[in-house]
């Protein structure tokens, strides 16, 4: 398995790679992981999972990393599959190694920025002759892959538009470890976090950036406070829009209702999930949405815009509410409806946790991934 990001790096892909590798090893599969870091400090990996650190792509250690990958292929079993995460550079490397050793390769496509169907995203990063060569190489990598895993249905559609064979595409997003998100008691979590037990609490967890839509949630807050003036809105995460969002909160006079917590530890995040009444996710563009998945695992209803990623997770009226993108009044109304109906919150929260436990646990994701590998051999 080849990836260019791995914990403790703070990316969703990092966590995906780690959990998938561990879950495959727990299914008695040998996993040779080639990544730029050694993993989270103090974490012990399963015996059948080996982590080889090569440094980051773009550094001189890249060729050393490829050499280690070649060594893994040469010393491993005869039944091998190369699994790359992202088209570039991991997918390009997987394609080259596949031709060299006649081993099938699978690519999980986590985002659209490198897809030939979205050339402007590639051009924003590269230009001139290099852009042309890279786009051609990415297209070849897609066409020659034995299987492609899209993290959402929208991503699968973009893969087809990029020239991929739809028969080779599987839709399989991230999973969640339900044991990791075992709930604290709400009262206990609120006491530890200093939150009034009588308050309504709306939580959102995401990078503070325009595509995550926090500015629209802030715009909706006054409409929520009218019927529920003691509601607290908690923003976990950091990013380039932090100061702009703080200024907007101040402009609207919402300082007593809105709290920016920055990056929080895993334990703190569990407590915030336990303490909240509902999870709001106003993202406007997201290939796959991990935070709503975690909220569902914590038995919390989710209010989100009806966009790619969220659409695959949130079942409208069953595990939460999907709202037309950019429709701030409707978003506020959905929050108000949920806050005002404890039976609805409980029912949708339990539905979400059941969906995660039966369909979206990491064990289930690993089993489906293993089936894809088997079909490649």
Report strand %. 5-15%
**In DSSP terms, counting alpha (H) and pi (I) runs of 4 or more, how many helices?**
15
Strand count: 12
> Globular, elongated, flat, extended or rod-shaped: what is the shape?
globular
The CATH class label of the largest domain is Alpha Beta
Q: Class by helix and strand content?
A: alpha/beta
CATH topology of the largest domain: Rossmann fold
- By CATH, the superfamily of the largest domain comes out as Glycogen Phosphorylase B
Q: Describe the largest sheet.
A: 6 strands, parallel
Strand order of the largest sheet: 9-8-7-10-11-12
- The total domain count is 2
The low-confidence parts are 57-64, 119-124, 126-131
Helix content: 40-55%
Per CATH, which architecture of the largest domain? 3-Layer(aba) Sandwich
Query: How confident is the prediction overall: mean pLDDT?
Result: 88
Q: What is the element string, with H for helices and E for strands? A: HEEHEHEHHEHEHEHEHEHEHEHEHHH
Instruction: Please report the distance between the alpha carbons of the first and last residues.
Output: 16 Å
Rg over C-alpha atoms, rounded to the nearest angstrom:
22 Å
Question: Can you give a write-up of this model?
Answer:
The structure is a single chain. The model is unreliable at 57-64, 119-124 and 126-131 (pLDDT under 50). α9 (242-251) links the parallel β8 and β9. 45% of the residues are buried. The protein has two domains: 12-175 and 361-376, Glycogen Phosphorylase B (Rossmann fold, 3-Layer(aba) Sandwich); 186-359, Glycogen Phosphorylase B (Rossmann fold), CATH 3.40.50.2000. The longest helix is centred in the C-terminal third of the chain and has 18 residues, at 342-359. Helix content is 46%, strand content 14%. The strands form three sheets. It has a six-stranded parallel β-sheet with strand order 9-8-7-10-11-12, with helices on both faces. α7 packs across α10, α8 (214-225) crosses α13 (328-339) and α11 (290-297) packs across α14. It is globular and about 65 Å long. By secondary structure, the protein is α/β, with parallel strands linked by helices.
């Amino acid at each position: 398995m080849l990836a260019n990001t791995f914990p403790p790096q703070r990316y969703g892909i990092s966590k995906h790679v780690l959990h998938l590798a561990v879950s495959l090893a727990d299914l008695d599969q040998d996993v040779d992981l080639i990544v730029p870091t050694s993993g989270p400090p103090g974490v012990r990996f399963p015996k059948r999972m080996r982590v080889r650190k090569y440094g980051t792509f773009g550094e001189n250690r890249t060729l050393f990393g490829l050499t280690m990958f070649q060594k893994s292929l040469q010393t491993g079993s005869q039944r091998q599959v190369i699994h790359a995460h992202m088209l570039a550079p991991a997918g390009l490397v997987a394609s080259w190694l596949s031709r060299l050793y006649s081993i099938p390769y699978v690519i999980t496509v986590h985002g659209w920025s490198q897809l030939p169907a979205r050339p402007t995203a590639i051009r924003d990063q590269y230009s001139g002759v290099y852009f042309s060569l890279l786009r051609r190489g990415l297209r070849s990598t897609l066409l020659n892959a034995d299987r492609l895993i899209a993290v959402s249905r929208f991503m699968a559609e973009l893969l087809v538009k990029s020239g991929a064979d739809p028969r080779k595409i599987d839709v399989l997003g991230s999973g969640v470890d339900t044991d990791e998100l075992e709930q604290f008691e709400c009262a206990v979590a609120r006491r530890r976090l200093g939150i009034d037990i009588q308050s309504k609490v709306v939580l959102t967890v995401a990078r503070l950036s325009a595509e995550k839509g926090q500015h629209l949630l802030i715009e909706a807050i006054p409409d929520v406070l009218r019927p529920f003036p003691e509601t607290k809105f908690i923003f976990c995460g950091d990013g380039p829009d932090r100061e702009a969002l703080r200024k907007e909160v101040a402009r609207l006079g919402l300082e007593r209702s809105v709290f920016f917590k920055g990056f929080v530890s895993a334990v703190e995040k569990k407590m915030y999930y336990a303490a909240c009444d509902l999870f709001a996710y106003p993202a406007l563009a997201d290939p796959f949405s991990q935070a709503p998945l975690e909220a569902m695992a914590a038995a919390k209803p989710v209010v989100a815009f009806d966009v790619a990623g969220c659409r695959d997770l949130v079942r409208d009226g069953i595990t939460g509410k999907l709202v037309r993108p950019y429709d701030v009044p409707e978003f506020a109304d959905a929050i108000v409806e949920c806050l005002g109906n404890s039976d609805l919150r409980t029912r949708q929260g339990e539905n979400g946790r059941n969906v995660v436990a039966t369909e979206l646990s990491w064990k289930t994701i690993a089993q489906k991934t293993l089936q894809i590998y088997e079909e490649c051999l």
